[in-house]
Specification:
Blueprint lengths: L27 H18 L1 H12 L5 H22 L3 H32 L10 H12 L5 H12 L5 H16 L1 H7 L20 E4 L6 E4 L19 H10 L10 H4 L31 H9 L3 H11 L13 H4 L11 H13 L4 H8 L19 E5 L3 H12 L3 E6 L8 H4 L34 H4 L8 H11 L4 E5 L9 H6 L4 E4 L22 H6 L3
Parallel strand pairs: 3-4, 3-6, 4-5
Antiparallel strand pairs: 1-2
Helix pairs in contact: 1-2, 2-3, 3-4, 3-12, 4-6, 4-7, 4-9, 5-7, 7-8, 9-11, 9-14, 11-12, 11-14, 12-14, 14-15
Length: about 550
């Protein structure tokens, strides 16, 4: 591990603001200058807010709701500052405009469709309703083919026009038809405007299945409308788009205002006489403890709904810096503990992953995400990495537990060496900053996130990521593993070696003899499938799983 990072900006096109260079973003001293520039800008623009922010960083508020309110107030300044730092103010403004343009969709969905149309028009009232004729008439009024956003904007205009009562009435009946009838859902169910939450029946979880009792045996098959065909090893689930993410963010009721954000903190029973409150459980006995990281979910959804894309991601990374390895297709404990227990919960993982993608797709988006894992002005307790402690930690296992632990150890000021029993394929040195001999070399800032992505059907397994690399199907984009790896490997206090099995290649005594102060085991929660025979893990002995995973 060298003392000087090799980040470079020459010939890359990246020109940072505030007198900083790209290499400064990978040095603690540079991050301190960046932080000072943010505080200075905050003082210049909002002196009163800056004073409260400084006081909170000195002594974080004990009241969670007070801290949440302060972070949300500071967040717009974070967006503006980061945009100026990377010279992407226009691109960020365009992204926020896209958020704002979609706002009528959700206002009409929840205030017109749900609270007016579905309350005033029942399924019985739709007997004989001529939906094709109604749609044709609405398209005449719109002056274009039917499209959800155009319809929503028109409804808002018609509601403000006293002469448009007939149009409002037909729009109400058409909306009820689109939500309440099978024909309406077939035509519009894939959009967001006419997709309303359904009731949750824990005893009937196969809601989209058909059953057949032929031969006295009941068999279930998936509804053909819900089949997703797998094409080789290509990515089969790209997740939601901005419209879908904002649909979830606006469905959330932002419980942090009441301190009841159960998605983050869990659902609890009433406190006992000693003031202790146990977590509630589902009918199947599953504990509703909420997000294991206690991520500020409600707050990031509030920011996302208002178009503050960068600060929404910054809010996530306070507690979940390796967000690229969570979210859609990975975890859903937050959904299980959502305040909506009797109807469809908020799809928080979809919104979380889309929030990350929206930032990644900005110019220099990866560098913005990477920066927020080291410098985060919304993290009142640790806005900057701690000074070097002098301690060296060996982390055995580079799966989700190992790489997340490595990140936090480095932010606490410790040097980390990560090892894994599997072969870890090298990244291009200009991406990782490490050559094939483990020496530090110059690495480039990434302007276009597409440069880091590979088609999954052509991608070679890289070995990094443990179960995330070998145990997850093509429903999840494994390119995210490269992002997480680069968050670690570019840092000067981190080294990684594959093909090193702890307990075989390297033992406890070996680790301490090499000068490590601590050994952290992150080698999986399950019992290893190894044969209980003498010298079963001797140097050179390989298990069947090792062999299969090394086939690439």
């Amino acid at each position: 591990m060298t003392d000087s990072p090799a980040a470079r900006s020459d010939a890359s096109g990246l020109r940072l603001g505030f007198g900083l260079e790209f290499a400064d973003l990978y040095r603690r001293e540079g991050l301190a200058r960046l932080d000072a520039a943010f505080v200075e800008r905050l003082v210049a623009r909002t002196p009163e807010l800056a004073a409260r922010y400084a006081a909170a960083r000195a002594t974080p508020p004990p009241d969670y709701k007070e801290e949440a309110a302060l972070l949300l107030e500071v967040s717009p300044q974070v967006d503006a500052f980061v945009a100026e730092l990377f010279a992407i103010s226009d691109e960020l403004a365009d992204l926020r405009d896209r958020h704002d343009e979609l706002e009528p969709l959700f206002r009409v969905k929840w205030k017109f469709v749900k609270r007016q149309a579905l309350l005033k028009v029942s399924a019985n009232d739709l007997a004989g309703f001529d939906a094709p004729a109604a749609r044709a008439r609405i398209e005449t009024w719109l002056g274009e083919d039917f499209e959800e956003l155009a319809f929503a904007r028109a409804v808002l205009a018609w509601q403000d026009d006293e002469t448009a009562a007939e149009r409002v009435d037909l729009a109400m009946r058409f909306s009820a038809w689109a939500v309440l009838t099978p024909e309406g859902q077939f035509a519009h169910g894939k959009g967001v405007l006419f997709r309303q939450p359904g009731k949750v029946d824990p005893q009937s979880l196969l809601a989209h299945a058909h059953h057949d009792d032929a031969g006295g045996v009941r068999s279930f098959t998936i509804d053909p409308k819900h089949i997703r065909r797998r094409e080789g090893f290509a990515l089969t689930d790209r997740g939601t788009d901005l419209r879908g993410a904002l649909d979830e963010a606006n469905y959330c009721i932002w419980c942090h205002n009441q301190g009841k954000d159960s998605c983050s903190k869990g659902l609890t029973e009433k406190p006992d006489a000693q003031g202790r409150a146990a977590f509630k459980r589902t009918v199947f006995g599953v504990k509703l403890a909420g997000c294991p990281l206690e991520e500020r979910i409600s707050e990031f959804q509030w920011l996302k709904a208002r178009g503050y894309a960068i600060s929404a991601l910054a809010t996530i990374t306070i507690d979940n810096p390796t967000v690229a390895a969570t979210g859609h297709r990975i975890c859903n404990d937050c959904m299980k503990s959502c305040i909506y227990q009797k109807q469809t919960p908020v799809d928080i993982p979809q919104a979380e992953t889309r929030t990350l993608k929206d930032v990644l797709e900005l110019p220099w988006g990866f560098e913005i995400y990477s920066l927020l894992t080291r410098w985060n002005p919304l993290n009142l307790r640790r806005p900057l990495p701690a000074p070097a402690s002098g301690y060296k930690v060996l982390v055995a296992g580079m799966g989700p537990a190992g790489f997340t632990l490595a990140h936090h150890l480095m932010n606490d000021g410790h040097a980390v060496v990560g090892i894994d029993g599997l072969k870890i394929e090298p990244l291009a040195p200009r991406l990782s900053g490490v050559d094939r001999h483990g020496a530090r070399v110059a690495f480039d800032p990434i302007e276009d996130i597409g440069e880091l992505y590979e088609p999954l059907e052509a991608r070679t397994m890289a070995g990094f990521g443990g179960v995330a690399e070998y145990g997850i199907t093509v429903r999840w984009n494994k390119n995210f593993l490269k992002l997480v790896r680069m968050l670690l490997e570019r840092r000067e206090s981190f080294l990684m070696a594959g093909g090193v099995r702890f307990g075989g290649t390297l033992g406890v005594d070996d680790a301490f003899a090499l000068g490590f102060d601590h050994v952290a085991l992150a080698m999986g929660a399950g019992r290893p499938t190894t044969l209980d025979i003498p010298n079963g893990l001797a140097r050179g002995v390989r298990t069947a799983s090792d062999f299969l995973m090394a086939l690439q």
